[in-house]
User: Fold this.
Amino acid sequence: MLTIDMQAMKKYLDHGYRIVKPFVNYALGWLSPELLGSGFHIKSTRNNQIIGFIPYSKLNCDSLAQLHLGLVTNSAHELVRQMLIRHLGHSFFTVQELKVNISKKGLWNKSLTLTLDMDEVIFDQFCIDLQKENVAPLNLDVKIQSSANSKDKIQFELVIKSQKLLA
Assistant:
């Protein structure tokens, strides 16, 4: 008897969720339109590489039926932020300056793969400078791939300040 009641309840909840899901996605999109409800996710994370994915959807497009430039920029920024958190920790740094340069040569009318590759030697030098000076610049490039030969990228020029811990 209990099993039948649980199955009926599950069926009822699944049906209700299917009805409410579009409204919830729409509401979350208004609260944080840059990433919530966009389908952006991080596919893989390695020590010096993070790969993200933005699915093509009409909700993610601008008036020209291409993926929205703001969505792509915010997704690339999220990759940079995750890479810094991975290597520097959550609360041990602040971004003092941020400069973004976007190079878009192709159409973004398909799903996009974003790749952040970080050179170990450059990042090691950045960490040394950050320890010595408490402030250090860091340049990172996020490659955007929609097809095999796309050359799009977003360049981030950051100035990072280290936070001193109370001890």
